[in-house]
Amino acid sequence: MSIKAQAKKEQLFAELRETRNSILKEVAALSAKKQDVIFLGVWSAKDLLAHLVGWDYTNLDASKAVLAGELPSFYEHHSRDWQTYNAMLVAKYKRDSFKELLALVKISQQELFEFLQSVVPESFSKDFGVRFRGYKVTIQRLLEAEIKDEQAHCQQIKDFFKEKK
């Protein structure tokens, strides 16, 4: 096992955990009334949490596909900013109970991590020949995209609700 590959894997996990924990901290501080306030296009905090759950499960399935040398199925739903796919994820995973949704967000990330723990570190950046429009798809790139997306969402939450206090 490469020390460099192991360190990169641990770094990805740490960034995912840190970013998700920041989001959960921000949304947990919202009043019940603010949990349903639309602040991100058509999304409330509940919608955003459902989106996170959906992408955890999407990346779980996508990682398995990449390891098998297959294009992840979510690419069939590619649209501008993934709007159609995100709407489908929100509809599937949104719950009325904020408490239930918070628990689901933790569970989905844990399930993703449990699978990824079983993957050898070198496979995170390995080229399994999977391409989307010429772009090399790897587990590492999937996770980096998730980190970037969640960091942006965390900042959006902070910016919007800071103005509303």
How are the elements arranged and paired?
Elements: H1 3-28, H2 45-67, H3 83-93, H4 98-117, H5 122-125, E1 131-132, E2 135-136, H6 139-163
Antiparallel strand pairs: 1-2
Helix pairs in contact: 1-6, 2-3, 2-4, 2-6
In short:
The chain has 165 residues and is mostly helical. The protein has helices at residues 3-28, 45-67, 83-93, 98-117, 122-125, 139-163; strands at residues 131-132, 135-136.
Structure overview:
The protein is an all-alpha fold. It has a single domain (3-163), classed as Four Helix Bundle (Hemerythrin (Met), subunit A) (Up-down Bundle). It contains six helices and two strands. A two-stranded antiparallel sheet has the order 1-2. Strand 1 (131-132) and strand 2 (135-136) form a beta hairpin. The longest helix has 26 residues, at 3-28. It is globular and about 50 Å long. It starts with a helix and ends with a helix. The mean pLDDT is 95.
What would you call the shape?
globular
Strand content: under 5%
- The CATH class is Mainly Alpha
Q: In angstroms, what separates the terminal alpha carbons? A: 50 Å
The helicity comes to: 55-70%
- Tell me, rounded to a whole number, the average pLDDT: 95
- Show unreliable segments: none
Number of strands: 2
Biggest sheet: strand arrangement? 1-2
Structural class, by secondary structure, is: mainly alpha
- Chain oligomer state: single chain
CATH fold-level label: Four Helix Bundle (Hemerythrin (Met), subunit A)
The CATH superfamily appears as: dinb family like domain
Summarize the main sheet. Answer: 2 strands, antiparallel
Q: In sequence order, what are the helices and strands, one letter per element?
A: HHHHHEEH
Radius of gyration: 16 Å
CATH architecture field = Up-down Bundle
Number of domains: 1
